[in-house]
Every structure is written in structure tokens, then in C-alpha cells.
Amino acid sequence: MFPDRFPAADWPLHVTIVPPFETELSAEGVAALLPSVPPIPVTGGARERFGAHRTVPVTVLRASPALHALHTASVDALEAADVVLRDQHHLRDGYRPHVTDQRSGRLHPGEHALLTALCVVARAPHSTRSVAARVPLRP
Prior knowledge:
Blueprint: E1 5-7, H1 27-33, E2 40-50, E3 56-61, H2 65-80, E4 98-100, E5 112-115, E6 117-124, E7 128-136
Antiparallel strand pairs: 1-7, 2-3, 2-5, 3-4, 6-7
């Protein structure tokens, strides 16, 4: 289960569907824009290093049409609501779903996981993050 609050430097394991964005909408307003989809199975693929200096260890997920469709539909809905997505390079065809290694663990190549919820994560005081809204993925 994704915790309600966590330190900015210690995220739980997760898949980023949409990179950080800016909006005047409430968290509930953002959550209402996200598509309703069933849970999405994912599988760990290759190990790589991301980031400007290639220092961030990740497991790239194997191709998943359902995950890519969720990403694209979410980006389209947010942009239609005038949400500012600054990182255009990693949207749509540039989207590379992955799980970043965390203190709590990592997703290994070939390991399976099931995405069961979308979380709208907000910055909170003192370098913490909080889940401002949750959208369960239901069959």
C-alpha cells in the first residue's frame, strides 16, 4: 500500500504515470480527470540508469499497451484542463515506464506487479510528500 505521507528522498516503489505538473486545480479535481481503468499488470524488463548523469538505477517495464494508454489518456485529459506539464520530452512516445530503485526495494527483471491505484502526490512542508487523492483502479 502506498503510504499517505513519506519523505521526499524516500518514495515507496511506484510507476510514474505523469511527470510532475503545475495546476490551480484541487487534488480531487485532478483525480476526476484521470481515466477509469482496470488494474494493470506490469513486468520488470531491463535494468538501466536514468537521469542527467545516468546515476539513477531503474527497472524499465516491459511494453504494456494498457499502461501506455493510461499515460496518454491522463496526459491528454490534464492538458485539456490547462495543467502545465513541463517535461514534454517524457510524454506520449517519449514515455518510458519504469520503477526507480528505492530504500524499500526494487522491481527485478521478470518480476510481476499489479497497479491497483493512481495517487496524486503533492509536495508538503519539510521535504515530505503527501497523497492528496487516490483513484482506485477497478475491473
